[in-house]
Amino acid sequence: MIRVLICDDSAVVRGAMSRLLEGDAGIQLVGSVGDGRAALDALPKLKPDVILLDLEMPVMDGMTALPLLLRANPKPVVIVASALTQRGASATMAALNAGAADYIPKPTASQGGMADPAFRAELIAKIKGWARVGQRRATTAPVRRAAPVLTRAPRVLAIASSTGGPQALAAFVRRLPRNLPVPVAIVQHMPAGFTAMLAQHLGGLGGPPCAEARDGEAFERGRIYMAPGDHHMVIRKSATGTPITGLNRDPAENFCRPAADPMLRSLPPIFGPDVLAVVLTGMGQDGLLGCRAVAQAGGAVIAQDEASSVVWGMPGAVAKAGLAKLQASPEALADEALSTFRVPA
To answer: pLDDT by residue (tens digit) across 164-222?
Structure first.
């Protein structure tokens, strides 16, 4: 049983989340409190595995409570519950940078509120996934790879991620040098506004600069292009034949926009076999069809392993399809990618 503590100043939100969690046999709701101070006071007795933390609360807000909660022993996993606003996106990225494991956006009334089945599925998947990952990290020694498995240097890196993606992306991008000799395209399933903040966060990790892609801009080496929320991103040729980014609001694929499949499908016509697709943690199987297109063109696919994934849906789909040449942690995947070419001085 995964022990969960809810911390939110809204009694309505606490009640709604409690009802969602109480229906799952693998989760035990051990407490529900209205501010950060109350959560800290409850920790010694309740010993939660996972804390669902609101950020804007009276007495003690979530950002103030977060580092104090993470000092507890055993250390809980903190998942931030945030508003679907620009302010909420900014606060969420700050919380992730301060040690929160993940976030879940609170759905608006127009989206069906917390009665939305998709919200419940995402909430429970993140609770169970992060609890499992936390337990594995505490008991499993890192596995070292013996030798590289990729032999061809790519001309582009393409990354797909969803549930648990922000932390996996940070782990991957943190290994990349600023002078990376190829461009990087990222599709992370996130609402509009949140992707801009995630790009800013990734761009501050010391590797290549990262920003939301703009329609029609040059797709250049040494830069990371993030698909904006609510837009598919593809790579296409300009009138002069150089690669540029393209944004559209075509129908969702795999219930997602942005989706990874359109981005991945767009790469082989331009880069041929010189594509390296990286599939990180996430629900569903977005990226499977795109990775198949990459592999059929002679490109390579690598995927996050089950042990380090919050949800082994997307990477598991490509692995089970026999497309992944390597399954490993995000850090090891980044090292594998870098092993294929010599980074310029």
So the answer is: 999 999 999 999 999 999 999 999 999 888 999 999 999 999 999 999 999 999 999 99
Integer Cα distance of 112 and 106 in angstroms:
10
Alpha helices in the chain (DSSP H): 11-22, 36-46, 62-69, 86-97, 117-139, 165-173, 194-203, 260-266, 268-271, 288-296, 314-320, 330-338
Start-to-end C-alpha separation, the chain:
51
Q: Looking at the predicted structure, is the pLDDT value of residue 233 above 60?
A: yes
Q: What is the pLDDT of residues 54-69, one digit of tens each?
A: 998 999 999 999 999 9
**Rounded Cα–Cα distance for residues 32 and 46 (Å):** 10
| Rounded-to-integer distance, Cα 256 and Cα 260, Å | 9
Alpha carbons 318 and 303: distance in angstroms, whole number = 7
* CA 174/CA 178 separation, integer angstroms: 10
Q: How far is CA 40 from CA 8, 33, 61, 134, in A?
A: 13, 10, 12, 20
**Residues 183/220, Cβ–Cβ less than 8 Å:** yes
pLDDT above 90: percentage of residues in the chain: 76
What interhelical angle do 165-173 and 194-203 show, nearest 10?
A: 30
Tell which residue, 246, 336, 332, has the closest CA to residue 300: 336
- The strands making up 2-7's β-sheet, listed across from edge to edge, are 27-33, 2-7, 50-54, 77-83, 102-106
Angle in degrees, CA 18, 24, 28, rounded to 5: 60
Distance CA 232, CA 271 (A): 19
Which residues are known to be catalytic? 162, 189, 286
What single-letter DSSP state applies at residue 36?
Answer: H
Q: Which two tokens stand for residue 155?
A: 């001309």
- Does residue 238 contact residue 217 with C-beta atoms inside 8 Å? no
